[in-house]
Specification:
The protein is mainly alpha-helical. It has 9 helices and 3 strands; from the N terminus they run αβααααββαααα. The chain is flat and about 75 Å long.
Length: 263
Amino acid sequence: MGHTRRYYKNKKRNKTKNKHIRFKHNLAIENKKQDLNFHKEFVLNLSKRDITETEFKVIAKGLKFVPTNKCNHRQLIKDFQSFERSLRLKYYFGTNVRTATKNHPFKIKSNFQVPIIGDNSIEKYIFYTKYELSKYMPTIKYNMSKSERECIKKLKIDNTICIHKADKNNTTVIQNKRDYLTEGESQLNDGIHYTKIINIDIENTRKIVNKLVYRMKENDEIDEMSFKFLREEGKTFKTPKAYFLPKIHKLSTETLEMYQNNV
């Protein structure tokens, strides 16, 4: 009799336990669906690529989202050297007070290095901070899961799609690269807003600009600082690149729903 009672008692307990497990499982599935629908609101897939749930989560974070990377110790020291120079400049020019003058609009950034002056609190701080940074080994806490980091790598090497921000709203658009290039070429070749230049001679343009700048300097039309800023000696030039943003806000509601349902 006792064994039978214990059997039915355990059976009832297991049944209740399994019921709770099924409830939690169904709740997790429902939350996952709601989470996916939430991320889909910020992503519009106009491409033929099938976007997975993880890829939706990654792209929905936006193009300005910065994943956690491993600490670059060399860059850390370089950043501190910039901070170190700033400290010394403030200390040097703080003790050697000069009358404030209005900065020239074309002032070139100075590379002046403040000499180390004696034993003061600033130098002690710099020395001990450098010493601590040399031993610094940070613990990395990733702000993305491993699967999401793998998704970023796959999306970066996919040459069939373009991922860019929409012209308005906070939507990130996924577009076929061929469609993107076709639309860009059609806008550039419309014959209204853009004119095609047959021969682009950047070097010749640079020489013409330099000649004008030198002539203005000889005629005292510009000062020395403006002349140094405007002259193009030692600078590299390249043709600028054009990029296009999709205006999805001009699409009809039916068209947007069609794309979202296809996803």
